[in-house]
Structures are given as C-alpha cells and as structure tokens.
From TrEMBL:
GO terms for cellular component: plasma membrane. It comes from the Bacteria. PANTHER family: CADMIUM/ZINC-TRANSPORTING ATPASE HMA2-RELATED, CADMIUM_ZINC-TRANSPORTING ATPASE HMA4-RELATED. Residues 363-393 are annotated as: Disordered. PROSITE patterns: ATPASE_E1_E2 (PS00154). This is Heavy metal translocating P-type ATPase. It is found in: Cell membrane. It is a multi-pass membrane protein. InterPro entries: ATPase_P-typ_cyto_dom_N, ATPase_P-typ_P_site, ATPase_P-typ_TM_dom_sf, ATPase_P-typ_transduc_dom_A_sf, ATPase_P-type_domA, Cation_Transport_ATPase_IB, HAD-like_sf, HAD_sf. Keywords: ATP-binding, Cell membrane, Membrane, Metal-binding, Nucleotide-binding, Translocase, Transmembrane, Transmembrane helix.
Length: 761
C-alpha cells in the first residue's frame, strides 16, 4: 500500500506542478515539484539506512544525492521526475517479484485444509492436522487428496498437474499408493492414510517452496559488489564534471542518469521468474543460488537405481517349464502374491494386470521372509519365491544361467513342489533417460558419470545403453561423497539421486537434485533441487530454464549498465539536462525489468515441441506397444522349446506365434510406417530420421514371411528336423529385432510426450 501511495503522490506532484505552470503560476508549480522531490528523499534515505544496517552500501545513495542536488540547483522539475522514477522503479520491481513468485505462492496457498474421515461408517469433515496413519478417508470427486495413502477400493483417476506438471489424469487401481496435493478427477474413492498431513508429500513440497528465495543468487549478490565500484565511479564522474565545467547542474545530471542501477532491478526479477517457471514443470528449486549454479553446470553425476532406472523391479520375461503355459505361470504367481506387500509381489501383480489376467483368490497364505510365499490357489499348493528343493534340471540350470547373463532376479513358481516356471525381473532403464542425457549434453553438460553402489556388471550394462562417460560402481556413501567432491573440483557439478545413501553426496555437490516422487525424505532434504514428479526429463527442463534465466539476467543487467554509463558520459559533457536524464533513466529501468520478465515466458529449450495431433498419435502407438510387448516373450519361449517338444506341438505353437505376428503385430508396424513415421519426419525435419526404423520394419516383414514359409513346408505332423535350426534362428531373430525396435521407438519417439500416457484400458 505504501508503494501505491508513493507512486500516486509522486505522479500527483508532477502533474499538479505542470498544471500550475500551464496556468501561469510558475512559482507555485516549482513549489509543488520541490515538495514532491523533497517527499521522495525520505523513502530513498530510508532505503540507504536499511542497506547500511544490512552491511551493504547500495546505489540508492545516488538517488538521495540526485534529489538533494536537483533541489540545490533549483532543477525542481528534474527532482519531481526523479521522485516518479524512484516510485515507479520500486513499484515495477515489486510487481515483477510478485508476478514471478505467483506460481510458488500458489503451491502452498492451495494446500488441503480439511479431509473426510470415516467414523462409524459415515464420512465426517475434519482438519487435515487430525489425520492419523491408518485412517480411512473419503476423497470425493473434484477434491484434493489430503495426505499420502493407498487406494482401498475402486479406481482413482487423479489430476497430478499441480504437483508434477503432468497434463493428463493418471489412473490408480486398488492397492496403489497416491500422494497428497493431487486432485480427484474421477469418481469418489476410499483412501487408507499412510502418513499424517505434516508428513505428506505435498507438505514437504510446501516447505521447500517456502524456503525458495530469489535474492540468494550469485548474480543478485553481484549487485552489491557492483555498488562498491559504481558508487565511487559515479561520484567521481559527477564531481569531475562539476569541477571542469564549473556547472553544478552537470553533476546533478550525472547523478540522475545513474539512478537507480538496472542490475538491482533486473537480476532479482529474472531469477524469481526462473524459479516460477521451474515450479510449473514440477521442479522445486531451493533458492536463486541453486538455479544460477544449475545454469552453469558442466558435469552431471547420477545414481543408477531410481534415477536412471525406474527404481522398482519389472517383469521382463515369464518362462514356463516344458509343457506349461506362461500365462498360467504368471496368473498363479500373481494370484498368490496379491496379498503380499513385498516389492517383487507388487511387480508380479502389476504385470498380470497389464496382461489382462483375471487373478484367482488365494487361501491359507503363508509368507516366509527370505524364502517366498506359499498357499492354496484353485485347490493347488502354489509356491512363489526360491526354487523348491536342491535338485536342478537342465531347464532350471539354463534359466539360472540366463538370469546371470541378463543381470535379472528370478522368482520361481511351483505347484506341489514341482517348478512350473520362472519369472525374470529387472530394474529397467527409464524410457526418458537416454533422451534426457542427450538434451543435457546439448544444454552444456560435458561429462556424465554414473555413481552407484550396485555391482559393476549391472551398472555397466545400463551405462552401455545410455552412453555415459564413466562408471563408478560398488560405491559406499562415503565413496560417493569423495567422488562427487573430486568432480566438483574440476567443474561445476550436479548430483542426481533418490535414496537415503545419496543424501551425503547430494549435499556435497555444487547442486544436488533429488528424485522426489518416490525418493527418500533425506535425499529431498539434502538436495538443492527436487523433482516432484517421477520423470527424469524434468531435470533437462529445469536446466533449460536455469540457463535461459541466467542469460536473461546478465543480458538485462549488462545492457542497462551500458546504457546508464553512456548516458552518464553524455550528461557529464553537458549534452543531457537533468530532466531529460531522469526520463531517459526511467526508460532504461522499465526496459531492463520488462526484459528480465521474459524469463516467465515458456521456452522450448532443448525439448522438441510436439503438437497435439502428433502427441495423440504417439500416445496411441505407445498404448499399442504396452499391449503387444508381453506376447513378444512367447516368440522366444517357442524358439527355446524347439527340439524339446513333440513335432505336432511345436507346429501348433509356431502357428500361434505366426497368427499373433500377422493379425496383431504387423498391422501395428504397417500403421506406424504409414502414419507415425511421416509425422516424425516432419517433426524432426530430417528425411533420414526414420530410415533405420523403416529398415527394421522391412526386416520384421522378411522374418515373418520366412516363418510363414516354414509353416507352409511343414508336414501335418510337424517341421522336419533339417529345418529346425533355421526355424529356431528365425524366431530368435524376430524376438531380438522386435525387442530392439520397440526400445528404439520408445526412446526416440514416445519419450517426446511430456506427460504420463493414459491408461490403455
């Protein structure tokens, strides 16, 4: 309010004095202008005193001297204009910071205040502070999830845009964990609270946002260092102009055009604008210093598990024992494990749901830590976990060897203590990891290091896919700190991690970045930047914004300083009167503030813009990939069984694979060739961008035709022995090409989609 009054009073004094002059009352007009200038001295002097109390000598002292000088040489109009300039400059700066911090403020202003807790079967409204772990809550349609919890029953369709930046609602089934701060975009559902409101995810984000300040950036502190030389230089130039010309008015003109320093206005506005932009992308940056340091980083150190990989095991293959069916193996295992809270059990149940399997209800379930789970499923004694008994068949030995080569975990499934199959799980590389690293390199990162406590062979297999520069495996938390410090001595270093053991390394880096969606509270607390969504590409978005913000801040400050210094030179030479100088300086200040606010505007950066029609097409084909990927394992399974089954059974399995390829997979590939690839060629502006993918399509077609030819040449009883080797090679080749091709498309094309894809069901 005081700044509004300051602006209004200054403008009123300037206008009233001008009106009196037009009416011929020049003395009265001068008196009003002088009063306006004198009134402006008071707040300007207070700003100087406040700066001195804070241990800074700011350039506001120049404003005080300019006002006093204008009054002393009877340049009353110049004094009134300086008063308007000071009031307007402060108002614009205040507006710029409020406008830039609006998105951060919105985070904690929208925090949930109430919740609906079931008591005696009825939902009652309570304060969120009253929520306790284990409470059963009702989340009505359109309301915010008040705390972290687990969906008890039904399906939750949640709008997570405010927390993660995702634009589309995300579906969560019964048993899925959800976070506070997201909005129910579907029907009402029940939630079992797993945290109090103060311990919840959104409360943590609010605490981070409240600590976010623009004034701590090095480029902002540079303004204080700038005053150390600019203030005496200005006074020296003003004094010199007065001394050599004998005209005090020249000194006043120099002081006028030096008021105030554009750097003081531009830097905080740009940094605050950058912080606002990152918050819209689901990134909380704890202060302007972290944002600017992120913008000049050259080395990226990344943890593997949960950062470059998904952080939770995923089913990569289900291998049935000879004579068994893969769907039945997974169905029985997931049916038994759906009552288990083990992380591997969750992965099995998720894989079964992805394959649209109907899970039977288990009975008499017993879970033995370190061994597995056992129980009755459809009247059968089913075991899931370690392989039963000490005996090892050639088939079991082959699966153990394969798991060792793939770096996969094994979950054995048995019925009545006889193995019927094995499920292989692996922590898969994030689909957006490779593209994100390429974007970061484009943005200026010159060295990428993987730092992990995992085994060297597992880490190197991930590194080979992503193309990192160095792999440091089997590291302890202390070893991680030492390596991060060593990298920081060579260049400005960013460390990205998510686990408790990453917290010390995050604190040791120049900028620590925590994967906050599923990461630990310790890593989020130690980090300077928190990615609130489970998307690694948010880091590339944040770095794009940081680099652009720093560039705009420096550009605004340097341009404004250069213009002010040039104007000071003209004023010292007598070419600029105090009134004209005041107006010119006001124009300069407004220009640098408006330029600094460009940091609020969205920018493409290193992200490739995808328009709505192409995005919809990408989502369609990504959903089809999710549907087609599980049956691909049937191809490898049939290839492995050739020579071990009866010829007519082999032929039946081969025909099933061929039917899937011709009826489901090839139509998908042909649709991609006809619709998706031309769109990607236009988007990427490179006719060669899809050439390798089209070549893979041609190879898939060739192998499918070859498989069909084998079926045509087979006798009713099966494939003749002389063709088995070629048939086996054909199937293995199809599996390899399709697996690689799917991975390439998901990395190169589908990762372009910013938001979480819709549920294919």
């Amino acid at each position: 309010m005081r700044r509004y009054l300051f602006v209004a009073g200054s403008l009123a004094a300037l206008a009233a004095g001008g009106l009196l002059h037009l009416l011929g009352a020049g003395n009265g007009g001068d008196a009003v202008w002088a009063a306006g200038a004198a009134a402006a001295v008071v707040p300007a002097a207070w700003w100087v005193v406040s700066a001195l109390r804070a241990g800074r000598l700011g350039v506001d002292l120049i404003a005080v001297l300019a006002l006093v000088g204008a009054l002393a040489v009877r340049e009353f109009l110049a004094g009134a204009v300086i008063g308007v300039m000071l009031a307007g400059g402060r108002f614009l700066e205040d507006y710029a910071l409020r406008r830039a911090r609006r998105d951060l403020t919105a985070l904690y202003e929208r925090a949930p205040r109430t919740a609906r807790r079931y008591e005696d079967g009825t939902a009652h409204v309570i304060d969120v502070e009253a929520i306790r772990r284990g409470d059963r809550l009702l989340v009505p349609a359109g309301e915010m999830v008040p705390t972290d919890g687990v969906v008890e029953r039904g399906t939750a369709l949640l709008d997570e845009s405010a927390l993660t930046g995702e634009s589309l609602p995300v579906r969560h089934e019964a048993g899925d964990g959800v976070r506070s701060g997201v909005v129910n975009a579907g029907h009402a559902f029940d939630l079992i609270a797993t945290a109090t409101a103060g311990e919840s995810t959104y409360a943590g984000v609010v605490r981070l946002a409240e600590r976010t300040e623009a004034g701590t950036a090095p480029v902002v502190r540079l303004a204080d260092r700038y005053a150390a030389w600019f203030l005496p230089a200005t006074l020296g130039l003003a004094g010199g102009a007065w001394l050599f010309s004998g005209e005090a008015v020249r000194a006043v003109a120099v002081l006028v055009v030096a008021t105030p320093c554009p750097l003081l206005l531009a830097a905080p506005a740009a940094i605050a604008a950058g912080l606002s932009r990152t918050s819209r992308h689901g990134v909380v940056v704890k202060g302007g210093g972290a944002l600017e340091t992120l913008g000049k980083a050259r080395t990226l150190v990344m943890d593997k598990t949960g950062t470059l990989t998904a952080g939770r095991p995923q089913v990569v293959d289900v291998v049935a024992a000879p004579g068994e069916d893969t769907k039945q193996v997974l169905r029985l295992a997931a049916g038994l494990d759906q009552v288990s809270s083990h992380v591997l059990a969750t992965a099995l149940v998720r894989a079964a749901h992805e394959r649209d399997l109907v899970l039977p209800r288990p009975e008499d379930v017993r879970e033995e830590p370190g061994t597995g789970t056992a129980g009755l499923v459809e009247g059968k004694r089913v075991g899931v976990g370690k392989a039963p008994g000490p005996r090892t068949s050639p088939w079991e030995a082959a699966q153990r060897a394969r798991a060792a080569l793939d770096g996969a975990m094994t979950v054995w499934v048995s019925v009545d203590d006889e193995p019927i199959g094995v499920i292989l799980l692996r922590d898969a590389v994030r689909a957006d990891a490779a593209r994100t690293l390429r974007r970061l390199r484009t943005a200026g990162i010159g060295r990428v290091v993987m730092l992990t406590g995992d085994r060297a062979e597992v880490a190197e297999s991930v590194a080979a896919v992503l193309g990192v520069d160095a792999v440091l495996a089997e590291q302890t938390p202390a070893g991680k700190v030492a390596e991060v410090r060593r990298e920081s001595r060579a260049a400005t270093t960013v460390m990205v991690g998510d686990g408790v053991n990453d917290a010390p390394a995050l604190a040791a880096a120049d900028v620590g970045v925590a994967m906050g969606a599923y990461g630990s509270a310790a890593s989020a607390q130690a980090a300077d930047v928190v990615l609130t969504g489970d998307r690694l590409d948010r880091l590339a978005d944040a770095m794009d914004i940081a680099r652009r913000t720093r560039r705009i801040a420096v550009q605004s400050a340097v341009t404004g300083m250069a213009l002010s210094i040039a104007a000071m030179g003209v004023a010292a030479a007598g070419g600029l009167a105090p009134v004209a100088g005041a107006v010119l300086q006001e124009v300069i200040d407004v220009a640098v503030i408006l330029n600094a606010l460009r940091a609020l505007r969205p920018t493409r950066g290193t992200r490739l813009h995808v328009d709505a029609p192409v995005e919809a097409m990408l989502r369609r084909f990504e959903a089809e990939h999710a549907r087609l990927r599980p049956p691909l394992e049937k191809i490898r399974e049939v290839a492995g069984q050739i020579g071990y089954e009866a010829p007519y059974e082999e032929l039946r399995s081969i025909r099933q694979v061929h039917d899937f390829l011709t009826e489901d997979l090839l139509p998908h590939e042909h649709a991609e060739e006809a619709r998706l690839y031309p769109a990607m060629t236009r988007l990427l502006r490179d006719p060669e961008a899809t050439a390798t993918m089209s070549r893979a399509h041609a190879e898939i077609d060739r192998l499918v035709r070859r498989l069909g030819r084998h079926i045509e040449l087979a006798s009713p009883s099966g494939v003749t022995p002389d063709r088995l080797d070629d048939l086996r090679a054909c199937l293995y080749g199809l599996h390899a090409v399709l697996t690689l091709h799917f991975a390439q498309e998901e990395e190169a094309y589908f990762s372009l989609v910013r938001s979480t894809p819709p549920d294919p069901g």
